[in-house]
Design a protein that fits this description.
By secondary structure, the chain is an alpha/beta fold. 44% of the residues lie in helices and 15% in strands. The protein has a five-stranded parallel sheet, sandwiched between helices. Bound molecules: zinc ion. Zinc ion (ZN) binds next to helix 3.
């Protein structure tokens, strides 16, 4: 089949648009006047009033989590963060849960040795290379990064090279059964062999956007334990 230059140009442009759509989304969100996704008021992606009214839910499956994923606004916010490059959602959530998180962590933070400038390591649940290429960013990493920013790096630091996702798996959201979810994740994560001493004797916080049945955070925790950390704490924005 003969392909004409203008046809080729169209496809090159189409592929480029697809590849950069997250960047485009991000630019769109930066340029457009923001409206609250709950009440529609102009100003912020989610206004303080609506944010403070979101239902809370904590500690399923031994994880610290903050918001109820069953709430339509929370669900929409997570969707915007996860698929639409709307980073300001991560910032809003991080600002709103930060004090509570510090409170929850207080007994562990007291154990940090200030003389050694010891910090808690925030480890976002990694995406596979394929998923990262497809999405362009890791939403858990964006959220963790916002927490470190608010903390000004005083006792938090982020590490994205300790835990790796080496197997591309279908989205956990599409699998309802807990056993099937576990099977889906078998062998999916590993400790980066070059960084295997990276969390030895350290306090690590595993971070995900949503905890559903706890299988992803649980599997990541199991793998991280091989690095012999002092403590692993699991945190998610919503359940
Ligand atoms: Zn609002």
């Amino acid at each position: 089949m003969v392909s004409y230059p203008h046809q080729r140009r169209f496809w090159v442009l189409a592929v480029r648009c697809y590849m950069f759509r997250n960047l485009l989304n991000k630019i769109i969100y930066l340029l457009l006047p923001q409206r609250c996704i709950s009440c529609g008021r102009f100003g912020e992606i989610i206004c303080g009033e609506c944010l403070s009214r979101l239902p809370r839910e904590n500690n399923p499956y031994g994880a610290i989590s903050f918001y109820s994923y069953g709430n339509p606004t929370v669900k929409k916010a997570i969707w915007l963060l996860k698929y639409k490059g709307c980073y300001s959602i991560a910032k809003k959530f991080a600002e709103s849960v930060y004090d509570e998180l510090i409170e929850e962590l207080s007994e562990h933070l007291e154990l940090l040795n200030p003389d050694k400038n010891e910090k808690v390591i925030l480890i976002p649940v990694p995406l596979s290379k394929e998923r990262l290429r497809e999405r362009g960013y890791n939403q858990a990493e964006i959220f963790a990064g916002e927490l470190v920013k608010i903390n000004k790096g005083v006792n938090f630091e982020i590490a994205i090279d300790i835990l790796e996702k080496i197997k591309h798996t279908p989205s956990q959201v599409s699998i309802k059964d807990r056993e099937e979810r576990l099977k889906n994740l078998k062998g999916a994560f590993r400790l980066n062999p070059k960084m295997k001493d990276g969390i030895r004797d350290r306090i690590a916080i595993l971070i995900d956007d949503v905890v559903t049945t706890g299988t992803t955070l649980g599997e990541c925790e199991r793998v991280l334990r091989r690095g012999r950390p002092r403590k692993i704490i699991k945190v998610a924005i919503a359940h």
